[in-house]
Write a structure and sequence with these properties.
This protein is mainly α. It folds into 2 domains: 110 residues, no CATH class; 99 residues, no CATH class. The N and C termini lie close together (6 Å).
Amino acid sequence: MSVVGVLLIAIGLTDLCRRQALPFWAPVIAGPVMIIAFGLLADLGSIGAVCLLVGSGLITVAWLVLSGRSRVGALHQAVPLTVLVAGVLVMIILSPLAGTAGGVLADWLRATGWYGLVSVGPDRFLLVLGLFLIQLSTGNEIVRLVLAATGTIKPFGEPQASDQLRGGRLLGPLERIFIFGLGFSGYATAAGLVIAAKGLIRFPELNARRRGGSVTGVGIDEVTEYFLLGSFLSWLISLAAIGVAALG
């Protein structure tokens, strides 16, 4: 599963780059550079591994370009989502062709002396790191695409339900990290506390919106739909990551 981890690392870092005030070319090269760097560090030099790494680079760039075009309405949101899901599934299926990771990364993990890292191994380390990075900006992007595809998000320039629920773009990654961390550590049941806490925190705000009616053209029904659908999608991303981690 080393190439799956490298792919997810590249996508996660690419999405983090395009959220920052960086030149337009920075996200484009971030993914391929990370793939080359981790490929070298993990000594993924077999023919099968190189072919899969090239494929990972193409998937990363395609995800960046297609999701960007969907933002401006030039492309349906289902296209980048399909590319991402299909690309990850293909890499999972073909990952045995890459062989086992090693190289400098394996030496570094052994040198740390930390039992947790030494026992994980380079293949699983790459996978877990990639799954962690996906919980950040990439998770927000996936949720945005699905919400836009279902009409929950209005066209750019119109009042949005997200404007009525502050902190969603920060709370989303935080809750996904908590859920993924708890599930990966074997405390999946405790993740329910995070889900319950979010509902308790948001309920007074939603109740206040209900009493106040429409705010800046956005009704309580739209805000509630945005909150529920967005939350379930965010949790699903974390749970899917836990499932992929179990495969590795």
